[in-house]
Amino acid sequence: MIKPLHIFVAILPFIVCGCEPRGGKDNWSPPAQRTGAQSSDWKLIGGNDYEQHFSTHSEINSNNISDLKLEWYADIPTRDGLTGVPIVVDGVIYQSGGLGKAWAHDARTGEQLWEFDAQIEFPLGVVPSWGARLSRGLAVWEDKVLKASGDCRLFALNRFTGEKIWEVRSCDTNEGRTITGAPRVGDGKVFIGNADADSKAGRPHVDAYDIATGRHLWRFYTIPGDPALGFENKTMEMASKTWGESYWLNAGGGSVWEGITYDPRTDLVIIGTDGASPFDPRLRGNPTGDELFTAAIVALKADTGEYVWHYSTTPQDGWNYSSTMPIVLADLTMEGQQRAVVMNAPKNGFFYVHDARTGDLLNEPKPIVDINWASGVDMKTGRPMKLDDAQYWLKGEGGAVVSPSPMGAHNWMPMSFSPQSGLVYIPVSDYPALMTSNPNNLVGFTEVNFYYSKENGGPFSGELLAWDPIKQRPQWRRKIGRPYQGGVLTTAGNIVLQGSTKGTLNAYEARTGELLWSFSTISGVLGAPSTAIVDGVQMIFVAAGSGSTSAVSFAPDFSDRADGPARLLAFSLHGNARLPKPSLEATPIERPSVAEPTPELAESGKRIWDANGCELCHGYRVVGGSGSIPDLSRVPSLPPEAFDAIIRQGVFVQSGMPDFGDYISADEAHALKAYITSEIWRQYKSQEMSAE
Predict the structure, then answer these.
(1) Which pTM value belongs to this model?
(2) Which residue has the higher pLDDT, 360 or 623?
C-alpha cells in the first residue's frame, strides 16, 4: 500500500482577518454621469465560448490607457488570497476563494452583496487539506453560480442570494483527491475535474452534471484501472495496453485539475491531463507505452463523455509535464483555409495547434522557451523527439538539469488569444531545475532542486510572451520579474493587461509589447483580469492577494510576493479612489533562539520534509507559507514537546493541519525540526549579509 502524500496545512489556528467586507467605500466617489445602457458582461471564465480571455470592448484603449484609474476596491474577508477571474453578470461580480468561499459584489460600488461558505469540516485527508485553501475560480450559468470546494464538493448557488440550490460530491477525499480548479459550463452542463497533488492516489476523472438539477450525466476516467475488475468501456481497455506491467499497483497521474473547455462548434469537451506519477518512468512498470491518457489533450462528446480523439504532448513523461493548462479555441486561417483549432501551451515548453474535430497537428510545434528534453516534434508521427540530456533517471546520483522545470514553461495562469492581433499572449516561466530520482520522496518520487538555475547563474525569469500561433514564432517578449506572474487579458483596444506577483497591474501595447501603464496593486496577482461594460462604462476588474497554497510559486525566490490583502480592484477612466498605504517593510527574520543543528541531523530532517511533501504548503527549503499557512521562517522556535504535539498528536487538525502520528516517529520529528531550524538559520544569515 502506498503511503499517502502528507502536507503541513497549518501549524497555527486561523487568524481572523480584520478586513472590511465592503472595501474602499469611504474612498469611493461617483464617477462622471453614466448612460444607463445595458451591461455587457464577462459571463465565462475566459470571457467568451472559446476561453480566449479577449474582450471586444475598446473604450479603454492604447491611446487613453494612461488615464485609467482605480474606481473602487473591496477588501475580501479571507487570508488565503484570490486567484480566480472575476465573473461579471448584470452589474454583479462573482469571485471564488479558498476554504469553500464565494462572494458577490456590486460592480458599480464594490459593495458586498452576499457570501457563501461551504463549511469545510476538518480533519480531512492530507491532499484535500491542501486543496481546501486553493480555488482558481467559479462559473455562472443563467441564475446559478457553480462553485467547487477542496473537499470534493460541487455547488450550485442562487446567483441573486448565494443560497445553495444543490450540492454533489464529485470525487472521494478518502482516495486522496481534491478540487482546486474552476468548473466549466456549456450547453446546460457543468464539467469538473479533480487533483491528487502528484501522489498517484486513486483514479482521476472528469464529471458532467446537469446544471438545473445536479443530476450526474457521465464520468470519464483518464487512466485505466485494474484489468481484473473489468474496464468501463473499450477506450479504457485500449488505454490499458499503453501502460507497463502491474500499472494499477505502481502508477497513477492524469488528473484534470484545470484545463477544461467546452467547444460549442463541435459539442466536444476538450480536457488537458496531468503527467504520470511517479515521475521516474522506471517506477511505473515495464515496458511502458504512451500511458494514456496522461500528459495529453483529450476530446470527449459533451452529451455522453465518450472518447473522440487525443494527442499525447509528452508520452512516457518523466518530468511532470502536465497538459492541464487552460485550453484556448480559435478559428484560424491556415494555408488559405479557415480551421477550427485548439491551442495549448503545456508545461513541456512547446506550443500546439490542433484541429478541433480530429486532434491532428496543423503545424509544427515550436518551443516557447529553451528546452533540453526534446529536439522537436516529428510531424510524421506527432511525437516528440526526446533527448538523453534531461533523462535524469539514467544519470545516477547526480541527476540531470532539465529545462523547462517540472513547474513548466507555462503553468495554470491563463493565456489569451486576440483575434485582432492574431497573437497568443502567454505568461511564461523560464528556468531549468535539477532532477534526481528519489524513491523516498512521495511528491512524484523524485527530488527537484528548483533553485538550481538561480544558484548557478542560469535563466530565472517570468516573461510575457506574444506568440504567433500560425508562424510558430515569438512576436515579442518582455521580462516581468521572477518566474511566476499573472494571467492575461487582451482587448480590442489594442492592449494586453497582466497582473504580477510584484503587486502591479500592467498594460502593454498588443503588437509591440510597449509598457503603456502600470498601477501598484500592493497585493500579488496570479489570475487574469476581466472587463465588462457597466452602465455604459467599460471597467476592468482584477482579483489580488498573495495568500495561497501554491507554495513553490509563492516562495520569495520564485515570485516577487507582494503580501497585501485579498482584494477586488475595479478600474475605469473616471475613477478617483486610492488604496491604503501599505507597510513599508517586511518583517525581518529574527535570529533563531536555538543553536544551529548539525548538518547530519538537518539532512536527515530534509528527507522527512521531502518524503511528506511539506514544500507544497510551506515552500521549498522552508521558504513560503502565506495566507492562513504560516511562513515557518517567521514562526518562533517551539519547544520539542510543542512541535511534537503539532506534528504527531494533531492538536491543530480542526484548522486543517493533518496528524502525522502514524507516519512520523518521535525521532523523525526531532530531525524535521532540526531541518526547519537549519533553513531559518540559512535565511537569517543571508538576510544579514544583504543588509551589510
Answers:
(1) 0.90
(2) 360
